[in-house]
Design goal:
Blueprint: H1 23-34, H2 36-51, H3 55-79, H4 86-93, H5 96-131, E1 136-137, E2 140-141, H6 147-166, H7 169-197, H8 215-229, H9 234-237, H10 245-273, H11 276-281, H12 286-294, H13 302-331, H14 350-366, H15 373-402, H16 411-441, H17 453-477
Antiparallel strand pairs: 1-2
Length: about 500
């Protein structure tokens, strides 16, 4: 009989978290983490800079491998619900080293996401202040494109949402429900209106990927779009706090299809209303500019308010899965015991939550080396896109190995359990590898600039190499038993919780 953990028959006794969430809460957490409003308001302009007026087809093509990844997550979660998700599943099915790397990448990429979203949140608030007529404060000109000003204001918001996350997932999910309702109402209203009233005619070229100028632009556009879908798996990080683990799988898939609908609506609407120069030229202010084109004040401010709410919600939902992943790793002694401390009052990993908020704030301060918010977003999104493609791919390959017996159970089951995860993994690995190669060959010197290929390659390389070093420390310094056992050949079915 296999162990229910990746490292042997005698794991340390785990601390337990309160099971208080249902499928709706899982959808709220995953949807807030995916942050459709921020992805549409900011990510579409960045992606258009790579692929031009081909946003709809790029969003659809990127969805296909992500759907295969989501199927792998759901299957694995059904047999082994664990807040460590890919970290545990890859460790069991492929290699403890690769499993640790998946966990580490998930943590580091989310902390990087939190750091730049802190700045985006501050930028959105400064834009909102400007719309309200407040353009100077104590003699300082308020500039939403200033990384320094945006970061300082964003850190204040990060502190607030971190403290909210400490009090429990129930209060966090309730807050995010109201934010999501407002965001989606604004998105549907403005994008729906723009879809029919925009001055630019529909073009079949928008859904023709063969007219994208180069393979590099196609690869970068797909990877940026994969980043937009990133976060649906956050529901699996709280699977031990959901009353029925199957609800985590349902929530992940519901979120993913919801995001597809919103991204396609946003893509068509943006291209109906805005020209390519307008799309790429407004960066972090894309959704605000759309609102100004479609309505007069005060209605024109609604998209900006929705963007602000989305950024705040994604800050909070980013903290939650990161801490749960570190909790799972601390439980396996690959990270220190600090990360497994549970607040007796709130039933959450409160100390770890505060620590992650502090780390994200510190990294946001370090990122001040990039002076413009738009450049910071581009550098962060590209780096995260590369490493996310790797950990998604490894999780899908783990599912294919775990359920390889399905190859003997007919073509339909083999397709869903093995073939689709493998194909999805290979697509993402190919995209990430190709983009890294183009980064390497596009420059001949290093410079801390998003236009410098070596810098763009340096960021994901640091994330990966730091993971290898941390794994070595966990194995030989911490002597974690996670690394000491052979990889099991079949999963132990996990019964539904009572």
């Amino acid at each position: 009989m296999d162990s229910p953990t990746p490292y042997g028959s005698d794991p340390p006794g785990p601390a337990t978290l309160r099971r208080s969430l249902g499928v709706v809460d899982g959808v709220v957490i995953a949807a807030s983490s995916t942050a459709a409003t921020s992805s549409i308001g900011i990510g579409l302009g960045v992606t258009a800079g790579a692929v031009g007026l081909h946003l709809p087809i790029i969003m659809l093509l990127a969805f296909l491998p992500i759907l295969g990844i989501a199927g792998a997550y759901s299957r694995l979660n059904e047999v082994e619900p664990n807040m460590g998700s890919g970290y545990v599943w890859v460790g069991r099915s492929l290699s403890p080293w690769l499993g640790f790397l998946v966990g580490w990448i998930g943590i580091v990429s989310t902390v990087v996401f939190l750091s730049y979203t802190t700045t985006v949140t501050g930028s959105a608030l400064l834009q909102l202040a400007g719309e309200g007529g407040l353009r100077t404060l104590a003699g300082l000109h308020l500039d939403p494109d200033s990384t320094a000003q945006s970061t300082a204001l964003g850190i204040v918001v990060l502190i607030a949402v971190t403290l909210t996350a400490v009090t429990g997932l129930r209060s966090a999910a309730n807050l995010q429900k109201y934010l999501l309702v407002f965001e989606y109402a604004v998105l549907l209203g403005f994008c729906g209106y723009g879809l029919f009233m925009g001055p630019h005619p529909f073009s079949l070229d928008w859904i023709n990927p063969f007219t994208i100028p180069s393979g590099q632009q196609l690869a970068q556009g797909l990877l940026l779009s994969v980043f937009c879908y990133w976060g649906f798996e956050s529901t699996f990080s709280v699977t031990e706090e959901i009353r029925d683990p199957k609800d985590a799988s349902r929530a992940g898939l519901i979120t993913l299809f919801t995001m597809l609908g919103l991204f396609l609506l946003g893509s068509f609407a943006f291209q109906r209303v805005l020209s390519l120069d307008e799309l790429t030229g407004h960066g972090a202010q894309g959704l605000t500019y759309l609102g100004d084109r479609l309505a007069d004040q005060p209605l024109a401010a609604l998209p900006l308010i929705a963007l602000t709410f989305s950024a705040v919600a994604s800050l909070q939902s980013g903290v939650i899965p990161t801490v749960r992943g570190m909790f799972a790793m601390g439980r396996d002694r690959t990270l220190g015991p600090f990360w497994t401390r549970i607040s007796p009052r709130h039933g959450t990993p409160a100390a770890g939550t505060v620590a992650v908020g502090c780390i994200a704030a510190a990294l946001a301060v370090v990122s001040l080396v990039i002076p413009k918010v738009g450049d910071l977003i581009l550098a962060s999104v590209n780096a995260i896109g590369v490493v996310v493609s790797l950990y998604y791919a490894l999780t899908a390959l783990a599912a294919a190995v775990r359920f390889r017996d399905a190859l003997r159970h007919g073509p339909s089951e083999a397709l869903r359990a093995v073939v689709l995860p493998v194909v999805s993994a290979l697509v993402l690995l190919g995209l990430g590898g190709y983009l890294c190669w183009t980064f390497y060959t596009s420059a001949d010197h290093f410079e801390a600039d998003p236009d410098n290929g070596w810098f763009m390659l340096f960021c994901p390389a640091v994330m990966l190499l730091s993971g290898v070093a941390a794994a070595a420390w966990a194995k030989w310094a911490r002597k974690s038993p996670y690394f000491d056992t052979a990889v099991p050949t079949a999963p132990e079915p996990v019964p539904d919780p009572v």
